[in-house]
Structure to design on (407 residues):
């Protein structure tokens, strides 16, 4: 594993360069010893005990009655998309859902992202979120946390971004790049002249070019120092692209793949190309994360079958098991299935895994639900403030562990 670090930290540390060089072999050995193959472990709260690693992905939520008197930002943050603003929209437990902290098994509470420290640590840094609306949800959370302590921002759209901000006093840029499948897709219909898909009876669908990164983020890879990718299970689930009416048809090198692939196979291939592309295009010291799937919590039917999420407490461990066990074939199980594809694609790569799935599986209480402003309940996005603040805590802890590794 190459020692990753933020270029900003590199600039600040130039004077310490020579002692650092001498330390490097030792650090590499330590890093090797503490890192399992798949994901970088976050170092425990105690910076002085890097040998005590902590798996932040596993654990439980513990009540913290004081948490909502120390709001990290409130409903007035302009970056909160209207439907996710549970407090402003009058969701009954809009504030109560903040009274929980994530406690990784056998460790102290996951430390909260300290916005001052985050801004300071990531001076002259560009951080990009690349993915669907769940990554926008996470982006909005980070923007709101940082704006709370540093309001001087310039709003702009760097490198194909949908939205972005530079925190002027720190020259830290955050942006969100909208993409659903990560790769390019668009409507496809049969040509009157025929072709391999036409001869198999395909009439219309969605063309997915597995080897062409979506143009909304293709330039982001060389612009950002830190990237956080996701692609939602939603997009790869059969319900989104009807396999009969509008199947996904996969293309590679501009040609249809024959025999046609099923969505999970297409996903594997798209992920493979994305990993290769990012590895080539990323800046030399760039850090790349892949965020795991964000679970949905529809009960009593799927989103279009009147399913809802009315709970006001996180699920118990037992309930989480029932909701998400792959064997149970329930409404929301696809997260774990898509995660398996993700892990396979990332296995041999230097992507770090930001594993938010399990911690989020508990939070059936924290979706906009009936206050999302849609015809159906929103049991997919998250209230802001809400659980995606904790995803950012995890991100900050991971980035901080990297820096400590080089200290
Ligand atoms: C995420 O963490 C949970 C809890 O430890 C684990 O069960 C799951 O396999 C992890 N998922 C991935 C994709 O690493
Ligand atoms: C701001 O940060 C970028 C790198 O992210 C750097 O290229 C640029 O020179 C910085 N600007 C200033 C004024 O330091
Ligand atoms: C499957 O899920 C349903 C609720 O969604 C639950 O009632 C049932 O007990 C679960 N079964 C198992 C085997 O977990
Ligand atoms: C899983 O559930 C869906 C409907 O929700 C059904 O169409 C499918 O046949 C089920 N699969 C299995 C293996 O039970």
């Amino acid at each position: 594993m190459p020692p990753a670090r933020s270029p900003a930290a590199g600039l600040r540390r130039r004077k310490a360069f020579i002692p650092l060089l001498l330390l490097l072999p030792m650090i590499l050995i330590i890093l090797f010893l503490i890192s399992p193959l798949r994901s970088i472990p976050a170092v425990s709260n105690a910076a002085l005990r890097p040998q005590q690693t902590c798996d932040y992905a596993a654990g439980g939520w513990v009540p913290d009655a004081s948490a909502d008197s120390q709001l990290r930002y409130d409903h007035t943050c302009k970056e909160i998309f209207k439907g996710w603003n549970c407090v402003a929209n009058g969701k009954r437990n809009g504030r109560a859902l903040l009274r929980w902290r994530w406690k990784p098994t056998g460790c102290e509470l996951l430390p909260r992202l300290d916005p001052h420290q985050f801004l300071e640590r990531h001076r002259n840094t560009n951080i990009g979120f690349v993915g669907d609306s769940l990554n926008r949800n996470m982006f909005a959370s980070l923007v709101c946390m940082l704006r709370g302590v540093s309001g001087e921002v310039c709003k702009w759209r760097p490198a194909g971004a949908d939205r972005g901000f530079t925190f002027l006093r720190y020259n830290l840029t955050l942006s969100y790049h909208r993409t659903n499948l990560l790769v390019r897709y668009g409507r496809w219909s049969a040509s009157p002249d025929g072709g391999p898909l036409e001869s198999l009876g395909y009439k219309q669908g969605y063309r997915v070019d597995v080897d062409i990164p979506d143009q909304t983020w293709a330039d982001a890879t060389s612009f950002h120092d830190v990237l956080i990718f996701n692609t939602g299970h939603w997009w790869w689930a059969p319900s989104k692209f009807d396999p009969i009416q509008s199947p996904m048809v996969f293309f590679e090198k501009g040609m249809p793949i024959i025999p046609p692939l099923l969505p999970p196979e297409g996903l594997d291939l798209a992920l493979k190309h994305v990993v290769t592309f990012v590895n080539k295009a990323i800046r030399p010291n760039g850090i790349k994360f892949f965020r795991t799937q964000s679970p949905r919590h529809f009960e009593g039917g799927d989103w279009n079958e009147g399913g809802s999420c009315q709970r006001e407490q996180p699920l118990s461990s037992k309930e989480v098991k029932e909701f998400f066990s792959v064997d149970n074939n329930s409404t929301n199980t696809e997260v774990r299935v898509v995660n398996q594809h993700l892990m396979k694609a990332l296995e041999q790569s230097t992507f770090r895994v930001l594993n938010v799935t399990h911690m989020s599986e508990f939070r059936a209480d924290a979706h906009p639900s009936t206050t999302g402003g849609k015809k159906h309940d929103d049991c997919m996005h998250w209230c802001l403030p809400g659980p995606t603040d904790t995803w950012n805590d995890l991100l900050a802890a991971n980035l901080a562990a990297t820096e400590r590794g080089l200290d």
Remarks:
- Confidence is low (pLDDT under 50) at residues 1-25, 27-51.
- The longest helix spans residues 387-406.
